[in-house]
Amino acid sequence: MMKLGGLSGRFFLISEWISRFAYVNFLWIVFSLAGLVAFGIMPATVALFSVTRKWVMGRTDFPIFQTFAKTFRKEFIKSNMLGLILFSFGYMLYVDLAYIPTEGILLTLLRFSVLAIGFFFIIIVLYIFPVYVHYEWKTLSYIKYALILGASYPHFTFGMMIAMFILYLMLSILPGIIPFFSVSLLAYLMMYISYQVFSKAESYDGYEEKEESFS
Q: 209 - beta bridge partners?
């Protein structure tokens, strides 16, 4: 393949990455709809993170559609089981916060306890997809280690939150790009920061990465 240098090379590289992000964003929408949204979002999101993981690790020479589709099919049931667990727990937190009265010291303490649990739940949600595509564990272990890794490196976790807020502001200013880049940029951002956490954790512990081979 011919390599371009100088300004033309940079323009070509930028254009290539723009097309990649737009393409996987499109695939996420299509596969989510293919699963009737409710059953498609989780496997489509896992497939999206699987693709962005490879990009973060410096791999671009793989078939995006085949990787996306194969991951979607392979992880359809397992990822939906995980999604059901997360949704159920998140819904319980929402109900608790919505219906716990604010009067009384004990009820106020209970409300703060639920808020604290909710904060840890947010950490789990931030790391659950990167952990899912990077490691080969059982379903509940993904939740456990998403919390452990996120809480063990709070500077990365807060950095991720800040970066996500900046992305939110950018999309608010340019809402026209939401159908093309929103989910893909978010996934890449979360995967990139999570990968830094994984690299640090793996230098201390023997976490086993998920090995995948897509033709």
A: 135
Query: SS3 of 136, please?
Result: coil
Q: Under a CB-based contact definition with an 8 Å cutoff, are residues 67 and 50 in contact?
A: yes
Name the 3-class secondary structure at 5. Answer: coil
Please state, in angstroms and as integers, the Cα–Cα distance from residue 39 to each residue in 43, 75, 88, 207, following that order: 8, 11, 15, 30
In this prediction the pTM is 0.90
**Cα separations in angstroms, 15 against 3, 27, 144, 161, 213:** 14, 18, 39, 27, 27
pLDDT at 214: 37
State the burial class of residue 96 (Cβ atoms within 10 Å of its Cβ: 0-12, 13-18, 19+): middle
Radius of gyration of the chain (CA): 19
Contacts of 75 (CB under 8 A, 6+ apart): 43, 46, 47
Helix, strand, coil percentages for the chain (3-state, nearest 5): 80, 0, 20
What gap in Å lies between CA 30 and CA 22, rounded to an integer?
12
Residue 209 three-state SS: strand
The structure tokens 């564990």 sit at 137
**Each residue's pLDDT tens digit, 52-89:** 999 999 999 999 999 999 999 999 999 999 999 999 99
Residue 10 confidence (pLDDT) above 50: yes
